[in-house]
Amino acid sequence: MDVEPIFCAEQIVIPHNLADILKAYTKEVIRRQPTDLIAFSAKYFTNLANVASGVSNSSAPAKEQLRQVYTRGGSGGATLTESQVTGLCQQAGIADAVVAKVMEVGAFTPAAVDLSKFVFLCLAMSCEDFNRVCMGVFDVFSDNGSLPAQDLLTLIAHLGPDMDPEVTPAFLDAVAAELPAGGGAVTYMELCEAPSLKPKLGLS
C-alpha cells in the first residue's frame, strides 16, 4: 500500500474521534486484563465496527414497529427462535437485513432469542445517542410511560461492554442506587435526575 510521506506537521490530520476511541479501548483493556491482547483487540474493534455501522437511516425501524414486535412476541421474558423473530419483524415491516445485523451484533443463537434484548438492540442501533435510546425505551417497552427500575437497568446493561464500554457493572450499580428502591417504577424524567446518568444523557 502506497503511503504519502510526511515531511511536515501540517500534513498530519488526526481524526476527530481518535482520542475517544483509544481512550475507551484503553479503559476496557485495563478493566478486563485480557490474556491475549491481540485476540481481545480484534473482537473489540469488530464489535465496535458492527455497532458503528448500525442500520441505515432508510431501513431503521420506527419505534411503533419495534413496539409491535415486542407486544406480539409476548413482551418481557419471551424467548423465541430466530425464524419466529424474523416473522414478527416481517409482519411489522422491518427489513430482513436489519434482523440479520441485530442477530449478529447480539450474538444470538437461532434457537433462543431473548425478545427484549433483540428489540432493545434494534432500538439502540437506530438511535443517534444514549439519550435517544433511553427515551425510546419508554416508548417501546412501556404501556404507561414508566418501567420497573430493574427492567430498565437490564435493558441498558445490554449496551455493555461491547456496544458501549462506559456501561460497566459499576456504572449500573451507581445508577441503581439512584433509582427508586425496591425496583419501583421510574419515568424518563425521573431517570434524567439520576446524577450518574446526567453526563451520559448530555444533561450536565
TrEMBL record:
<comment type="similarity">
    <text>Belongs to the ropporin family.</text>
</comment>
<protein>
    <submittedName>
        <fullName>Radial spoke protein 11</fullName>
    </submittedName>
</protein>
<dbReference type="Pfam" id="PF02197">
    <property type="entry name" value="RIIa"/>
</dbReference>
<dbReference type="GO" id="GO:0031514">
    <property type="term" value="C:motile cilium"/>
</dbReference>
<feature type="domain" description="RIIa">
    <location>
        <begin position="16"/>
        <end position="53"/>
    </location>
</feature>
<keyword id="KW-0969">Cilium</keyword>
<dbReference type="InterPro" id="IPR003117">
    <property type="entry name" value="cAMP_dep_PK_reg_su_I/II_a/b"/>
</dbReference>
<keyword id="KW-0966">Cell projection</keyword>
<keyword id="KW-0282">Flagellum</keyword>
